Amino acid sequence: MTSSRRLSDLPVGQCAKIAALDGEPGIIQRLLEMGLTPGTEVSVVRLAPLGDPMEVLVRGYNLSIRKDDARHLVLGP
Amino acid sequence: MSERGSKSHTIVLLGNPNTGKTTLFNALTGMRLRTGNYPGVTVEKKVGALLGATGIDVLDLPGTYSLAARSPDEMVAVDVLAGRQEGAPVPDAAVVVVDASNLERNLYLVSQVMETGLPVVLALNMSDLAERRSIEVDADVLRQQLGIPVVPLVARSGTGVDELRTEMIAAIGASPPQPGWSWPPEIALAEASLAAAAPDYPAFELRRALLDQGGEAEHRFGNVEALAAAREQAGGPIALQVMEAEVRYGYIGDVVAAAVTRPPTPRVTRTERIDAILTHKVWGTGLLVLVGYFVFMSIFQWAAPVMDFVEATFALVGEQVEAASFLGDGALKSLLVDGVITGVGGVVVFLPQILVLFGFIAVLEDCGYMARAAFLMDRLLRWCGLSGRSFIPLLSSFACAVPGIMATRTIESHRDRLVTILVAPLMTCSARIPIYVILTAAFVPATMVLGFVNLQALVFASLYFLGIVVAVLVAWALRRTKFRGEPTPFLMELPPYKMPSPNIVVQRMLRQATHFLSRAGTLILASSLVIWALAYWPRADLTQSLTPEAPAVSAMTADQLQLQQSFLGRMGRTVEPAFAPMGWDWKVSIAVIASFPAREVVVSTLGVIYGLGEVDEESTALREQIREVTWDHGPRQGEPVLDLAGALALMVFFALCAQCAATLMTIGKETGSWGWPVFTFVYMTTLAYFGAAITAVVARAMLS
User: Fold this and answer.
1) Residue A66: its chain B contacts at CB < 8 A?
2) Does the interface ipTM go beyond 0.85?
3) B610: closest CA among B598, B596, B595, B626?
4) Residue B322's pLDDT band (boundaries 50, 70, 90)?
5) Among B166, B445, B573, B652, which residue's CB has the most CB atoms within a 10 Å radius?
6) In the prediction, which pLDDT does B667 show?
7) Alpha-carbon B308 to chain mean position
């Protein structure tokens, strides 16, 4: 599954659906609680000046997420 | 627990961060709140009496997104709701505050609280924002859908707060809600098998133990094998967690679809337009530097006149008492002047900085900029294992670590907060400047290096740099040892911008100030009194003209003689051999020890010990004396005590040492444990000692 597209790879301005999550349960649970569940649409609003973290729009609110954490989110086609 | 007998009730207030929970808490309780710490955790306990009712307390919990506790701090919310938290009464009901403009994610926590078995009231905060975005929430539909009382209100203006109060009173003794969602068979079966193994375990906490792998509820449950088996049977821990989130968000999706009307085409919001500038690569970074500069200057420079005024006032009071003849010239007068008045002054002097810094922090936090600052700085601070949230606390610590450590309350992650607290005292605070000034002026020639850099300025800058580098290394080391553990994601909401509320800002400033005075202030005063006593006793026998240590007593001032043979002086002599690598004599040692209450005291102590009376860092007499004073005993007798190497070592020592009782007391109060200030003192003193010794040895080798 490592070859599949991750939220961390999604370019600014683009939108995609979350397909699955993988990684440590402690991290996964936090992502899920914030509304990043399978089937949810996310779009990348911008990147911080140093390229990380990224600001994403999910369930109508803006969330700052580090690329390391965004890597746990597998995107659908 | 209860002051009013059996009539006393408690209602818990909770909600996501950025929902206006604090504003609502203030509106419900007024200013009469009682604060404290829960034992063993860093969570602040906030309780206030519900206005317009008798015998009902409102207990405010820290903002949270979920009840899946992953640290003892987060577990406080679960324990309070379950009525098991030490120091908190068993609650009768819960009020969850939600932001109408962001209902979907807010309802996640609501769905968890609805399972705790407590009656739940929903406070629907209709921020002006929801209105501006044309988001309409039908409270009646929401009430029907959720099956709990829903009160629309505007916390800022107070509209609807009376109605909420009525619902809160009605909730006491009401039956708990029936959750409108059902769990898939996997979860239901796993829970049933666990319930069979632990029959009396509360259902809500059993569910949390099952779902939160590695979380606090799991540790509490204890039987990890049974949990692992139950999870495997249900498809594994991640599958279970996804199931929980999908069930809750699935249910919430239906509720929101029925109760919320959004504009058909979302417009570009005001926040979006502001963020295009404030988080812009160039403009955003530039503005952050400007904001940082303002925050730093406000406490470093602009608070200074007020601090000078405080110091001058206490000095004046001291003089008046000194002149009061009816007090005599004994221990009482000295205790009042040098102990109490100086000690209280040493506490009050922090207030201007605390008020100004927390004014800034409250404005930045309330308007939403703080999260953007953290967003911009995160990558840089992550390099040493911290997060963007540590930016303002660390920046503030360059002026003074006390408000800086208090500012770490804005850091949500427990681990990041502790690491920030532990390295904050390494930032070069303004109390270090006097000793740097006097030593550079006395020993470092004002020559130019490479043609354009003033050598004195270079030494100054190096000391600032040293503090930062050591802080980065210590933070790095802490993250790899004590604070290793499972990595936690850094997820941070970027809330919509709003006008900061003057009420919130003023209240926050006053609360931090009273906090500081009532908690750390008393301890800082106590430590000043201890040092006073050590310097006052035993009394010098001024009739005795000659002692072996000080052959030229006749040339000494009475103060000088007293300090030399006090307990403090004896301690200085005892530790002198330990400072041999740096080449400091016992007089310098006394000054180092006497500066424990506050670093800047070192200058005035040196003044007294060299027989110059009251001096400050601008004193040319002290500069000369510091250069000229010679060893009065031992192999180097007759040689100057301090040379450039010894002075550099002394500066490095003060750059790294924890000679600041106020900082240590604040760490103790903020972490709720005396282990952390002890740790800080030990690690910083060790670093300071070896740093100074290495500096002296290397400098001597290079200069000779």
Assistant:
1) 378, 382, 489-490
2) yes
3) B626
4) confident
5) B652
6) 94
7) 25
Residue of B108, B249, B251 best to disrupt the A interface, most CBs of A under 10 A: B249
- Can you give the pLDDT at residue B670? 86
B93 pLDDT band, cuts 50/70/90, is very high
Residue A59 contacts B where some CB pair is shorter than 8 Å: yes
CATH superfamily of A7-75: Ferrous iron transport protein A (FeoA) (2.30.30.90)
Q: What is the CATH number of domain B1-266?
A: 3.40.50.300
For the record, the structure tokens of B568 come out as 């403090």
Chain B CB contacts of A22 under 8 Å are 238
Q: Test A29 with B376 for CB contact under 8 angstroms.
A: no
Instruction: Count other Cβ atoms within 10 Å, centred on residue B292.
Output: 17
**pLDDT band per the 50, 70, 90 thresholds, residue B346:** confident
Mean pLDDT of B228-255: 94
Distance (Å) from the C-alpha of residue B109 to the closest C-alpha of chain A? 9
* Residue with the larger pLDDT of the pair B299 and B258: B258
- Is the predicted pLDDT of residue B669 greater than 90, yes or no? no
Q: How many residues does chain A have?
A: 77
B275 neighbourhood in chain A, CB within 8 Å: 45-46
CA distance B537 to B535: 6
**Nearest-neighbour CA in chain B from A74: distance (Å):** 14
A49 closest CB neighbour out of B241, B284, B492: B284
Domain residue extents for chain A: 7-75
B375 contacts on A by Cβ (under 8 Å): 48, 53, 55, 64
CA distance B487 to chain A (A): 8
Residue B265, pLDDT score = 65
State chain B's mean pLDDT as an integer.
Answer: 86
Question: How far, in Å, are A5, B62, B82, B414 from residue B76 at the CA level?
Answer: 38, 9, 10, 13
In 3D space, the residue among B136, B102, B492, B134 whose CA is nearest the CA of residue B279 turns out to be B492
- Whether chain A has a CB inside 8 Å of the CB on B71: the answer is no
